[in-house]
């Protein structure tokens, strides 16, 4: 017997939905992101408790056991994951959500009796499967368990079209009235035909997700994660229609809408269209590039020389990137900035929208090191300041400062907005090696006469520079 009346169930679902909306609002700013995350978690807890108290559940022990197993796996995994691997974790979580929505819709097929329910089932199975398999591929690419470059085989585009047509055919069969299917004189009854079509849709959707993400490479992968996240949200919303659950409908719609907006903004920040991101490899406009390092000479230097450049500057603009995150050098970077400011030197952090692997990656990283929000300047704000900067200190970034985005029409990143570090009087790169960035292309700024390179792990290099600055 259910312990909650329908009225109380609806009211508590409304409270959970409001929590989700407030969570999204909070996540819009680094200052309120932690609070927003906690509010969202509270909403999820309320929703789960309401399900248990308002529904007569079969196999209760099995359900609780599965939740316990999931908790045992998820909590340590989430605590152990590094900040640099957060996008991979997001990709996996997103994929699991899409896959779960697809399986739920598949299992609920036999209970669907209306055209709307069948439409929701077909949509959820296809889109959820695409989101699941596509997210797995993005995880493998980001984790570098498979090549990050675009992977295209002969006839790839034609195979995508063919697989998509098979998926649409399966969806049509699911939606067709049972009387129509029965009139075809098939050996199986209409329900069995719909079930087979749903399984085909699940398999085909999974294959389509793989085929769509394989041609995406380099810096475009995070955009696809966001797009797949939007797809997962829509699949969850559709599963809410299948189950008659209003909260799933609301939560899925919120995720779908926010994911779509984020995808658009990320694509804009990368100077791409969403279609160009997905299908650019088929016309030679992908983020693929040469991974070979040039034989041209560069001007490398020591930590002491870099310290002198910084110590006698009036204004320094720091450009943090993925290399800073990998080395966990944010605290050393923050201390160096404080030391320079104590000497009367103005220090500003220039943040590219997609620096790192996801939007906000650098903001979170620097906030962790207690860098004041006032010291963080977004791209449009900081770009004019490079012309008056004595030194641009680039720590572990490459693609987001590559002038090829402006000067080389044939470049894979051409058209992507960048931070104009080339306008500074002196440019210092802290790099491990001359290997290209995640987009896989070379940066000609490294060979500019005003550019100095300090090779090594970012944390070790910054520690040496910090010590030298203190001794000036």
From TrEMBL:
GO terms for MF: NADP binding; proton-translocating NAD(P)+ transhydrogenase activity
Main subcellular location: membrane
EC number from the UniProt entry: 7.1.1.1
Keywords: Cell inner membrane, Cell membrane, Membrane, NAD, NADP, Translocase, Transmembrane, Transmembrane helix
GO cellular component terms listed in the entry, alphabetical order: plasma membrane
Subcellular location field: Cell inner membrane
Segments passing through the bilayer: 6-24, 36-54, 60-77, 89-109, 115-140, 152-175, 195-214, 221-241
Enzyme class: translocase
Reactions listed under catalytic activity: NAD(+) + NADPH + H(+)(in) = NADH + NADP(+) + H(+)(out)
Family annotation (InterPro entries): DHS-like_NAD/FAD-binding_dom, NADH_DH_b, PNTB-like
Bilayer topology: Multi-pass membrane protein
Keyword flag Nucleotide-binding: no
Domain (NADP transhydrogenase beta-like) ranges: 11-466
PANTHER family for the chain: NAD(P) TRANSHYDROGENASE SUBUNIT BETA
Role of this protein: The transhydrogenation between NADH and NADP is coupled to respiration and ATP hydrolysis and functions as a proton pump across the membrane.
Family of this protein: Belongs to the PNT beta subunit family.
Protein name as catalogued: NAD(P) transhydrogenase subunit beta
Record organism: Microcella putealis
